[in-house]
Design a protein that fits this description.
By secondary structure, the protein is an alpha/beta fold. Among the domains are: 206 residues, Rossmann fold (3-Layer(aba) Sandwich), CATH 3.40.50.1700; 45 residues, no CATH class; 135 residues, Immunoglobulin-like (Sandwich), CATH 2.60.40.10. 32% of the residues lie in helices and 18% in strands. It contains 26 helices and 28 strands. Helix 7 packs parallel to helix 8 and helix 18 packs across helix 20.
């Protein structure tokens, strides 16, 4: 058979296999089997998988913690599909990967906002390569990562999963991660969530978005377009929200006209979990599941996930003439082509040794390197850092002796189904509300089996019964398999330490006075008084503050479906810190959180402030290495940090407000007219000098600008500086950003060393859609700004784009940076 012959061209194999398939077998390739616990798919495979299956969800909640057992379960499912179904088509099994493979014991990496804070795309690519190898060794060939959403609203619970606010930075980091993850057609990466998902009104996850087409194409689509053309990303996942009054899951305008025709994507589109059913049950753009399936498939969603709530009706829809089989064939071709490209037919099982891959010391070393390079020192008054020796230190705060708080919600730690006794506290818990909404919409048939029937909504008695079932399920013994989050970390990441433990190793237990003081969201009885006693005995205070990112933990302050109007620390932490500041001891504050918290009180009264984000399994060591100077901080903010949630949105590449470039707003309170910390900001323990900018005076519209300057380490320590290049169009047919990031480079310099930093910037990077919606490069004067942040500009210049306005089919997505050492005289 041609389709089983690896020597044949992929398209020939696809057509051969497609021609052999029944309609039921085709449709089965367009949906997903959800493998909670590994049992539902495995035990019922003879019935559920008899026609084959397109994809299988095998996330952390499908695992038992016994990796050998779970790998064997996965292998047996694939074995059944290959050996006991008529055509032997393997499944595309997916997991998550933005913080490492979502598998107990797999290397955990700092979250995406950390990775972006390094401003070093090569690290993202190295991370992707590690994640790829560990996924493949387990049996995965697909991963639902990374996010290409722009993170511009700190209220949004998922902002920590993004690479920040700027489309250029997001594109550079995301493209590099995809290159590492996919390798040589080894794994399918999935760019998500197309499109504008992170821009929902009010920071409400999955909510309404209003984005004009020019802004959509030039800003929000830019990272996806870069992923398509620079990394050949194999899959894209839709947003489960609403854009310009259209349910994204059924929007032909977005998924075909823009994604495929305009941006040039020709790969696989997979649905975000439940997004197709949302179109019917939440957004009401279709009357029933069958009509929803027809709309979604014709609009361009190839695969429904995590089940087949809607696509199961496609067979009937073809039979009744409501949809032509050509639409089924179109999507099946994409599924099969992806499977052939990944070599699934030749090697459907695990590739390599999972134990060996996760045991490589270089994997943990890379995680720590990313953690250290991502820590952003935003304040260091009187050079209080690095810490001096022989100090007695009060270590306080809810994350001072806590390990699970270092991990992101989509990490193996954050996504584990661990014990929680809190699900019965409140029916207003977001996780309970989400589960209840799903039960009464997407799982009405299951409720019917319990004798619960209703038209629009359940009766109060029925609601109580359903809620009790959900709570029981969430606290069942099966979901307790990992123990508590602390036990999970101890079991699978035994080398993970808390900040307190690392400080005790560094300074001696006798010099560390530890008092937690409060929990993240709740006070501890007598906690503040205990903190005050410790602080009074200490020379200096280290406060480890922040929140908790999780989908599952009811005490979480952020995460998916955990949006938060409060963008400052929670009240108990602020109350504790007010008392601490009143004791007039020097305070160093460390923010561990998935969001860019606004911390005006902490920033004003602390002597030093560091944002550590979610630094993963070696996070505490990275933090203490930075505090002691073993690591010179070099992270830069990938987001603008505001002072107050009333300033949202506030981001660097804004359109001009007044004539002056640094005017942000006109609020009555002038303090609120600028951010707390600007995009790109980050301090070092050394000082850098910029000088001698040279650049071309004129550039053709289809040419490249050459610029170069000198960078010197004029301070007392070796260090890395992240140089940033911004441009502004002096006169343009439509309003353009006050500063557009077009290039950056991380430059390592020894003490007194000077290097020449050069950039080539293609003018197609500056292309935008004009009044006629043509994508153009316009002639005219362009201003250039080079600096240590978007606000700290050290060098300025200008050049002219000459010639006629040029229409551009495709942008250029990256500038080229080179660094050359200069001999000091």
């Amino acid at each position: 058979m041609i389709y089983k012959d690896a020597s044949k061209p992929i398209q020939e194999r696809v057509e051969d296999l497609l021609g052999r398939m029944t309609l039921k077998e085709k449709v089965a390739q367009l949906y997903c089997a959800n493998s909670y616990g590994g049992d539902s798919v495995h035990d019922g495979k003879e019935e559920r998988l008899k026609d084959g299956i397109g994809t299988i969800s095998y996330l952390n909640d499908s695992l038992t913690g016994d990796n050998l057992k779970d790998m064997e379960t996965l292998k047996s499912i694939q074995k059944f599909l290959i050996e006991e179904t008529r055509l032997g088509i393997p499944a595309l099994v997916h997991s998550e990967g933005i913080a490492g493979a979502q598998i107990p014991g797999a290397t955990t990496f700092p979250q995406s906002l950390n990775v972006a804070s390094t401003w070093e795309p090569a690290l993202a690519q190295k991370m992707g390569e590690v994640v790829k190898k560990q996924l493949m060794a387990y049996g995965f060939k697909a991963v639902h990562s990374p996010l290409f959403d722009l993170g511009r609203d700190p209220r949004w619970g998922r902002i920590g999963e993004t690479y920040g606010e700027d489309p250029y930075l997001v594109a550079q980091m995301g493209v590099s991660f995809v290159k590492g993850l996919q390798g040589d057609d080894e794994v399918m990466a999935t760019a998500k969530h197309f499109v504008g998902y992170g821009n929902a009104e009010g920071g409400r996850n999955g909510g309404e978005q209003q984005i004009a087409e020019r802004k959509l194409l030039d800003t929000y689509c830019f990272p996806f377009e870069a992923a398509i053309h620079e990394s050949d990303v194999k899959a894209i996942m839709n947003s489960y929200g609403i854009l310009n009054e259209q349910a994204v899951a059924t929007s032909k305008w977005l998924l075909i006209d823009i994604l495929r025709d305009k941006l040039g994507f020709n790969g696989l589109v997979v649905s975000d979990y439940g997004s197709i059913t949302h179109a019917n049950l939440r957004y009401r753009v279709a009357k029933d599941a069958k009509e929803t399936a027809i709309l979604a498939l014709t609009a361009g969603i190839d695969v429904e996930q995590p089940g087949n709530s809607c696509y199961q009706y496609l067979v009937d829809a073809v039979g009744s003439g409501e949809i032509e089989e050509v639409y089924i064939d179109r999507s099946v071709r994409r599924v099969l082509e992806t499977k052939f490209k990944l070599g699934l037919f030749e090697n459907p099982y695990e590739d390599g040794s999972f134990h060996e891959e996760i045991s490589k010391p270089e994997c943990e070393e890379l995680s720590q390197e990313i953690a250290e390079k991502s820590i952003v020192l935003v304040k260091n008054e009187d050079h209080i850092l690095p810490l001096q020796k022989n100090l007695k230190i009060a270590v306080i705060g809810p994350t001072s002796d806590n390990k699970p708080n270092f991990f992101g919600g989509y990490s193996s730690v954050g996504s584990a189904s661990t014990k929680s006794s809190d699900f019965d506290k409140s029916e207003e818990d977001n996780m309970l509300k989400m589960a209840y909404a799903s039960a009464i919409t997407e799982h009405k048939e299951t409720l019917n089996a319990y004798g619960i029937t209703f038209d629009d909504e359940p009766t109060p008695e029925q609601k109580k019964f359903i809620m009790d079932m959900i709570k029981q399920n969430m606290s069942s013994s099966d979901k307790d398999k990992y123990g508590s989050p602390e036990e999970f970390v101890e079991t699978y990441y035994p080398n993970c330490k808390s900040v307190k433990e690392v400080l005790e190793n560094e300074f001696g237990k006798e010099n560390i006075l530890h008092v937690k003081g409060c929990e993240i969201r709740t006070p501890i009885s007598g906690g503040i008084e205990e903190v005050k006693k410790a602080v009074e005995q200490a020379d200096i205070v280290i406060a480890v503050l922040g929140g908790k990112e999780s989908m599952l933990d009811p005490q979480a302050t952020c995460g998916e479906n955990r949006d938060n109007m409060n963008i400052d620390l929670e009240k108990p932490q602020l109350e504790m810190m007010e008392e601490v500041f009143g004791l007039n001891k020097p305070v160093i504050s460390i923010i561990v959180d998935g969001r860019p918290l606004s911390t005006p009180l902490i920033s004003e009264k602390s002597r030093a402030v560091l944002y550590a984000w979610l630094p993963a399994q070696t996070g505490a060591q990275a933090i203490v290495n930075t505090l002691t100077g073993k690591s010179n901080p070099s992270g830069k903010l990938p987001v603008t940090i505001v002072k107050d949630n009333g300033q949202i949105p506030m981001y660097n590449s804004r359109l001009p407000f007044y004539a002056e470039i640094n005017n942000w707003a006109e609020y009555i309170d002038n303090d609120k007219n600028t951010p707390l910390y600007p995009f790109g900001h980050g301090l070092s323990y050394t000082q850098f000098e910029y000088s001698e900018l040279e650049l071309d005076s004129t550039v053709e519209a289809d040419g490249e600008l050459n610029l170069k300057f000198k960078l010197k380490n004029a301070g007392p320590r070796d260090g890395d500086e992240v140089v940033q290049v911004y441009m502004r169009d002096s006169v343009s047919s439509v309003v353009r950003p006050v500063k557009q990031l077009v290039g950056f480079a991380r430059v390592g310099l020894e003490v007194h060393e000077t290097k020449e930093v050069a950039f080539k910037v293609n003018m197609k990077q500056l292309a935008f859609h004009d009044l006629n919606m043509d994508q153009v490069v316009e002639p005219g004067k362009i201003e250039v700004f080079i600096g240590a942040s978007s606000h700290d500009i050290r060098l300025k210049g200008a050049f002219d784009i000459t010639g006629e306005k040029m229409i551009v089919e495709r942008k250029v997505f990256s500038s080229k940076a080179t660094v050359r050492k200069i001999l000091n005289h």
